[in-house]
Amino acid sequence: MQHLISLEDMDRDRLLTLLDRAQQFAELDARAAQPDSLAGVHVVNLFFEPSTRTRLSFEIAAHRLGADVVNFDAERSSTLKGETLADTFRTVEAMGAQLFIVRHGDSGACELLSELAGSGTHIVNAGEGRNAHPTQGLLDMLTIRQFSALPFEQLSVAIIGDIRHSRVARSDLHALRALGCRDIRVCAPDALLPDAGELHGYRVIDVTDDALRNADVVMTLRLQRERMEDGLVDSLEGYYAGYGIDQRRLSLAKPDAFVMHPGPMNRGVEIESAVADGPRSAILRQVANGVAVRMAVMEALVEHCN
Ligand code: NCD
User: Domain residues of the chain, as ranges?
Assistant: First the structure.
């Protein structure tokens, strides 16, 4: 594995190996001695879209493994002078950076960079268009494994919200499938569902209450208006009434079901605050697991080359 672009072709064994390693990192106190797997490695956060948790958790993960980290600020870079992504990448690679953490609005950006990359250079997709967000998919699987008493094969997972524009949902769907999950329900207004071809193998359920009934895991997604044509959602109030996860709706899921959201949340749009901050919320665990998963991924990529 030289790059991590998508979870689409990642098999169950590879996923489980990464999750096992991430679990070790999750259990390792951040103040204890850390492995120096990335000592001497220059990591560049190449983010062309906004990010809070993904960028910072990659940075913290890289520091914990002994890497040197620099952050690229697209807003203050030569991108504004018209420099292409490929030229920006080649420029930073020529400075000796080896591990590129890339967030970009174009689906295909990471694939392009992986084709340009030299043999000792690694590309990690940190969220690309609506296509894929593989480390989010991995951290979501780690969170499910920690919270759930059941194996993936026996889980009922309900994914509610703007699946059409969600790279998180696409990576989660690939990972859930690879891990053997059979009951995957998707629920969204028609305009926010992916095209039919992408939904093969999943149960599309029109009514949120029905999608949640006896679910073990409830995943809700942000309305990604930056990637949406105008008019797909009539009103935020109407969306909340139809698809918002509140305490009444959550009570339809299994008694030990838990709620996930990749963040950033729109409270009162996708999720009620009482749920987001309540005892059945896994949201901050997702964030914490982001550091552990990103440590495991970066370590695996660099080890591949040594
Ligand atoms: C997600 C993203 O950027 O795709 N955020 C994240 O990385 N945790 C989800 C979103 O923006 O809604």
Answer: 12-132+287-304, 134-282
Does residue 66 or residue 73 have the better pLDDT?
66
CATH architecture of the domain with range 134-282: 3-Layer(aba) Sandwich (3.40)
pLDDT tens column, 150-168: 999 999 999 999 999 999 9
Q: Which amino acid is at 69?
A: V
Sequence-distant (6+) residues with CB within 8 A of 238 are none
pLDDT tier at 306, thresholds 50, 70, 90: low
Query: Does the beta carbon of 224 lie inside 6 Å of ligand 1?
Result: yes
53 touches ligand 1 (CB under 6 Å): yes
| Dist CA 96 CA 41 (whole Å) | 9
Q: Do domains 12-132+287-304 and 134-282 have the same CATH topology?
A: yes
Distance CA 68, CA 98 (A): 10
Q: Return the CATH fold of 12-132+287-304.
A: Rossmann fold (3.40.50)
- Residue 227, ligand 1, Cβ within 6 A: no
